[in-house]
Structure formats: C-alpha cells, structure tokens
Amino acid sequence: MNERIKEIMMDFVPPMFSRIYLNRTAPYGFFGNYSSWEEAKRASTGYDSGLILNKVKDSLLKIKTHEAVYERDSVLFDRIEYSWPLLAGLMWIAANEEGKLNLIDFGGSLGSSYFQNRFFLQTLKEVKWNIVEQKHFVECGKNHFEDDELKFYESIEESLKKQKQTPNAMILSGVIQYIEKPYELINYIINQKFKYLIIDRTSFNNHNNDKLVVQKINPVIFDASYPCWFLNKDRFVQIFNNKYILMSDFKSFEDSAKTNVPHFYGFIFITK
C-alpha cells in the first residue's frame, strides 16, 4: 500500500484552482463527462508543475515575510478569505487536545492553509503542521519554508515515522477530486486511524453518481487542464460511517448557487 500511495502522490494535482465554475460561454471551467481517467487525461493538456511551483513559492514567500496578506492559487490578495468552518475545526481540535494541534495536511502545497490561518494558530500552545506533497514541493518547502512548526514530507508514512508525537488529525483541502482513485485514498486514510479528519473544498455532483470532467484553468492563472471528479456526496460520506462520526458538514467558500456546476463541501469527522 505504501508504494501505491506514493504513486498517488506522483499523480495528484496541487490543491488549487477549485474556484473556477462552469460557464458555457467561457473557455475555462469544467467540461465533458468522461468514462475513464485515461480518456479525461487524453482530453487534458496537463500542467507545468515547475511553473506552478515557482509561482506559488514566490507568492508564499511574500506571505511568510508579511509583504502580502493572503495567497490563493498563487495569486496575492490584500484580504484573507477564510474557510471559517475549517478554522473552527482546527480550533475545536486544539481545544480538545489541551491547546495543541498536530496534523498532516495532505496535498498542502507550500503551506497555503497554514499561512491562511497563521494569525489564529499563533494563539495555541503548540502547532505541528506537517505537509505531505510531491517531491519537488517538499524540496522547495524544506529549503524556503520549513521551521519548528511547519514540516514537509513525501508520504504519510514518512511523516508518521519522523514525529516524536504522532499527528492525530488530517486535512484534505481541495485535493481528493484530483486523485485518479479517490475512494482508494480515502479508505487508506481511514485505516490510518487519525482521531480527527477535516475535508474541505471537495467537489460533488448534483446527481446520484460520480462524474469525471476536465477542468480548464483560466489562463490568467495558468494554462492548464486536467481530470477532476464530481463525487457523489452520499456515497462519499457513507465510507466513513463505520469508523467515524460526522460532526459537521458545510458548504465551502467556493460553492456557487449556479446550476450545472459542482457543489463544494467540507466535513469534520471524529473517530468513534
């Protein structure tokens, strides 16, 4: 299973760009209804991972040094747009754990969620934020961002083995829909027995099935396109029922009231 998860890490797209909705008159958004991942890949252009990495790095370095306030999709903003349910979940976990937060952020880029919530996290007694990412993101993270609170690893296993205290929580924000076999990843994570799971910015279909589309990114951000799942919400939640209690579900801030678009949801789970 360890090797299979490494393969997943090689394939997944950085957790970005989910706030792009379907507009049938626009050249970007979500398109098609594909029968297989390979078919969707053939209809995609892929992405320049080196270009993405450099743009994200440059933006987050400005956030780290307080030269800018907020980064999303490598774009800088002068005001933080919080995912308040995610932040509430983080603070709830810390409250349950004597003011301490020790988590794995799967597909966490170079620390986007960490820096987004840094103002609130600094009030906690202890923070250990461990990002699991692709190799080139990990190398960049270690060189430019890693410190006593923020660490980078190439696999969940590596992160668990190198911690003095085992992380008891995991975040998956805007990443599950970009995995070829999302349910395989979910089952693997469930079997790791984290006490808390927070899932955010995940796209779901309006119908009773999983739908596979191609997401085309606004070229103002990047010229890229790749496969993306609209998952079935009921099926998704049921996977957790045997081992977790659903404490809360919520609409992510990307969610749109438009029809014929995915809905973006998040969930907070605690183990039974």
Automatic annotation (TrEMBL):
<dbReference type="InterPro" id="IPR027612">
    <property type="entry name" value="Put_MTase_LIC12133"/>
</dbReference>
<protein>
    <recommendedName>
        <fullName>Methyltransferase, TIGR04325 family</fullName>
    </recommendedName>
</protein>
